[in-house]
Amino acid sequence: MRRGPAGSCRAAARAPLQLGQRERRRACLARPAPAAAIRAGGGRAASGRSRRMGPVWGALLWGCGAALLCLLLQGAGEQPRGLLLLLPLAALAGALVEIARRPLRLLRLPEDVGYYPARTLRGSRHPGQQLPPVYPNGWFRLLDSEQLRPGDVRHVAALGEHFAVFRGLDGKAYVVDAYCPHLGANLAVGGQVVGRSCIECPFHGWQFNGEDGKCTRIPYAETVPECAKIKVWPSCEVAGIVAVWYHCDGIDPTWQIPELEKVSSQKWVFRGVTEHFVNAHIEEVPENAADTAHLSFLHKPSFLSGADLRCINSKLWSFFKHSWQAEWQPEPKPNTHCSVLNVKHSVTIFGRHFSLLALSVSARQVGPGLVFLTFKHAFLGQGVMVHSITPVEPLQQQVTHRIYYQRHIPAVFPKFLLWAESIQFERDIMVWNNKRFAAKPLLVKEDGPIQKHRRWFSQFYSENSPRLTSHKKTLDW
Ligand code: FES
Ligand SMILES: [Fe+2]
Fold it and tell me: Which protein residue has the closest C-alpha to ligand 1 atom 1?
């Protein structure tokens, strides 16, 4: 069998662990750059730093081109002083073009957003009583597709499981249990992709097929026992994410993630991604859709006033307000695992309607872990934001938003949308990170269909769904 590109040490170094990435980011953020750095361009893997150099390289290229032109003209006896003045301008223009063109990447660490005072409150906080199970059944994002090149292996800890996610040389992403059935080594720590769809354990070299989990080779044994198998998790790749199907009873997928035709046909192109961590029960996040009353309070002050709840009502930005009209409802059979929130968003400036930021959004929740938000703007086109939520701990959620937008619309507009949305989302995070789950909330009829949402969401729990039983002993909550 042919060895994949990850068969070299260099390739292994290019395939850091999921946790390694976070540590890498932490190291980056420890430098003088602001903790809430907005990253323009680049992957979230090892290549991130060099790609962040993009605007600088763009500027240098423009500068070198202009310098070369000056030299040529000087050689020809011309006076290039005017051009010399243009040189820094050309370099600046190059940098700006690069910044505007590249996808936005805004990646927050768990402690970056929404704690007050800082992270110290986490230990003493009350999570609430009668919490629903912590891992619902459904499809969940594990990685973004660009984080997994052919031959890459990644370790992902989520949903109380440890996954080894790898991409075979056939280009397909596979998800298997991280722990080898032989003696328990972690396949994602030094494991290598072998051939089209196999992964090799770093400990004794057993090889497993990502299609069916069967062991295909034991380098020192004459025969491979029939029972030598690794667990294969149902997985798929849609809209730039690698997703896994989780069911506490091991039941196969009962529904699929819908294909986004505009994205797969490249009519809508990738314009950016954000990543956040939420310290709350998973159900708190989708419940936000049914809690329509909070929109006109928490999300009314201008996004320009930021995400810190202590400052959002600052007088400075009081001339700018968002207004929302929203309605949430579950979908009928056969899509009972879906629900839709229709939102009309508009902006008032000094009390007058400002149509440039008026948007219609249809947020279709597909199962417990994914939402597709389709945007329509009167003259700035259409796009979709893919929202994913994955429990990485019982009460910690990793949330990503990926935006795809019509190719002909300048990238600045969808990037601006994603950025503005992230500020509003961070306000929610500051609430979630400091609240407790209210099993019996005190509601008024204008609160929105919160209880209806809870009944709808309960379909994703089964009798054996894991519960949080001893959080005080086991969690840094
Ligand atoms: S532990 Fe994996 S091959 Fe031995
Ligand atoms: Fe919200």
Answer: 183
Gap from CA of 428 to ligand 2 centroid (Å): 5
Classify 124 as helix, strand or coil: helix
Q: What are phi and psi of 33, to 5 degrees?
A: -60, 150
Q: What is the pLDDT of residue 129?
A: 75
Q: Which ligand is nearest to the CA of 186?
A: 1
Query: 162, 153 in Cβ contact below 8 A?
Result: no
Structure confidence at residue 384 (pLDDT): 98
Ligand 2: distance of its center to the CA of 149 in Å? 34
Ligand 1 pocket mutation, candidates 206, 208, 229, criterion most atoms within 8 A of CB: 206
| Cβ atoms of 366 and 337 closer than 8 Å | yes
Out of 153, 179, 183, mutate this one to test ligand 1's pocket (max ligand atoms within 8 Å of CB): namely: 183
Long-range contacts of 86-94 (CB under 8 A, 24+ apart): 87/63, 88/63, 90/62, 90/63, 90/65, 90/66, 91/59, 91/60, 91/62, 91/63, 91/66, 92/59, 93/62, 94/55, 94/58, 94/59, 94/60, 94/61, 94/62, 94/63
Is the CB–ligand 1 distance for residue 208 below 6 Å? no
Q: Quick check: 215 and 238 in contact, CB under 8 A?
A: no
- Token pair for residue 98? 């690069």
Residue from 186, 198, 199, 204 to probe ligand 1 pocket by mutation (most atoms less than 8 Å from CB): 204
pLDDT tens digits for range 381-415: 999 999 999 999 999 999 999 999 999 999 999 99
Q: Is the CB of 217 under 6 A from ligand 1?
A: no
Q: What does the pLDDT read at residue 50?
A: 37
The average pLDDT across 441-470 equals 93
Q: Is residue 293 helix, strand or coil? A: helix
Maximum Cα–Cα distance for the chain, whole Å?
85
The atom number, within ligand 1, closest to the CA of 185 reads: 1
Ligand 1 neighbourhood includes 454 CB (under 6 angstroms):
no
Q: 126 pLDDT band (50/70/90 cuts)?
A: confident
Q: How far apart are CA 326 and CA 77, in angstroms?
A: 68
* Structural fold of domain 104-125+259-471: Naphthalene 1,2-dioxygenase Alpha Subunit; Chain A, domain 1 (3.90.380)
CA–CA distances in Å: residue 59 to residues 4, 54, 62, 65, 90: 37, 9, 5, 10, 7
CATH number corresponding to 138-238: 2.102.10.10
Interval between CA 429 and ligand 2 midpoint (Å): 9
pLDDT tens digits, one per residue of 187-236: 999 999 999 999 999 999 999 999 999 999 999 999 999 999 999 999 99
